[in-house]
Amino acid sequence: MTSATTGLTGNIQKGGALLDDCRRVVEVWDPSISEGDNLTRIVDQGLLAKRSRTRAEDVIRRIIRPRLIEPGPQIIPALKNLLSDSQAFREACYYETSRDEKLLALFAEEPLYAMWNGGRLGVTVQEVIAWQVQMTALGHLPAWTDTVRLKVARGLLAALRDFGVLAGDNTKTIVPPNLSPRGFSYVAWRLHEAGGSSRSLSNSHVWRRWLLDPTRVSDLFRQATRLGVLSMSTAGSAVRIDWHANNLQEVTSAGAG
Q1: Closest by alpha carbon to 25, among 34, 15, 38?
Q2: Residues 6+ positions from 140 with CB-CB distance below 8 Å
Q3: Mapping DSSP to helix (H, G, I), strand (E, B) and coil, where does residue 173 land?
Q4: Which of 82, 144, 162, 170 gives 89 a disulfide partner, CB atoms 3.0 to 4.6 angstroms apart?
């Protein structure tokens, strides 16, 4: 397994990408007041435009907190810098979502990545269900009902479509790998921030979530170098990455325009 199988849940069936909600929170976030006051204001003023207060509170609890709040106070200011770059914003949100929704990360890193490398052009709901059955047999997932497995499969595919990894409504096709330099830099810093070494950054299975092979990852490091956020040098199998940014907000400021 490329990702830890502990903490796997079917929550993706209830949340999905919810990019519009994430964007709205970032847009209206007031850095001059506390986290709690921001979240209360968002709910009280109906800024998520939900049907009810209960639904807004549910989105805050299940989606916004684990994805954008719990990782630390650096996330929302950094995402504000990406609001005008819809692709990079989407990619950053995909990283934060797949970090929280481990089943989404695992599906992208393993079967979907293998399908793409094997020349497959699409993926079906039935294949996602079959993967869940296999994961249950291995002891990594609960024995969900057929109804839950169907909802989870649809949720995974819909999220991957919304995050730009797949395309299509009924038939999901695999989009050729396309991670922007700014989105890549965001993810690379987040991995660095979590204690990743230079070598582990370049070899991380996280890049498989965008279906990137090692050659494409190396090319993106070169593009990040041109943005000025880092420099990378190699000598044989040794890799060294030097950061020229001090924090995530500086990383996402690079290349803005």
Answers
A1: 38
A2: 1, 5, 8
A3: strand
A4: 82
